[in-house]
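go over whats below:
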Amino acid sequence: MAITASQVKELRDKTGSGMMDCKKALVESDGDLEKAIEILRKKGASVAAKRADRHANEGVVLTKVIDGKTGVIVEVNCETDFVGNSNDFVNFSNFILDTVVANKPSNIDELVASELDGKNVATELTNIVGKIGEKIEVSRFFIETTENATYVDYIHAGSKLGVLLRVESTEGVESEKINLTFKDIAMQAAAMKPLYLASDEVSAEVIDKEKDIYKEVLRKEGKPEQILDKIADGKINKFFKEVCLLEQVYVKDNSKAVKDVIADFNKENSSDVKLTAFYRYHVLDEKK
């Protein structure tokens, strides 16, 4: 039977698939709209299966702060930068962000099984894979609500790198002032790649490993054995300044550490705000 342009448009409106894919599905289904939708979904599932072993190392990081008290960060991946910049992929990624906000799933499986506005995430994922022809996955997300706290977010240009901060004990402090200072600290976290918030988060195992490396280097330099521990301790303090956000030199004023900037903020505002957590997502990071 002849397939009309209006049939193709209707199927395209319902599925978001390309015009030629819609026409082929309608021809295969003899114009039956529901069968055509099923054909397109099977195509998407087939593409997803074929792409399952591919690497999805491109994509976007998105953040959202709701009323200051809830912070959200998600990462959605694809295979190529071209797809990562496409409207279809960006719209799907925003759908994932909105679904996390609405449903507050506890893990990826719960997220994929959930729905928003009548749309099932698993179905939408299959559909977009079929339409785009690349592996697409939601690799990670975080959502948290904390009373008497303010979340501050930052997305770096290109949306491949994002940071979410949790700042506590903020009651009575103007949110604009918090955002002004802590947005810069979020940018610091993005640029300087800290691994920990503070030195007390670094495990004894990591510290001992670093000391062993330092002492081995010092031995090869001919330093006396009895002074190796003292020198290694000094190098550990330098290590903390590299990997701990609060200990890092502040990029906008190298006479201060990040913790000093927060102390100055509290002095100026008669407050006692504390940076208690940061979450840094970068699509180029090796996936764990």
Summary: The beta strands are 58-66, 70-78, 115-116, 119-120, 137-145, 149-155, 161-168, 274-282. The mean pLDDT is 88. DSSP finds eleven helices and eight strands in the chain.
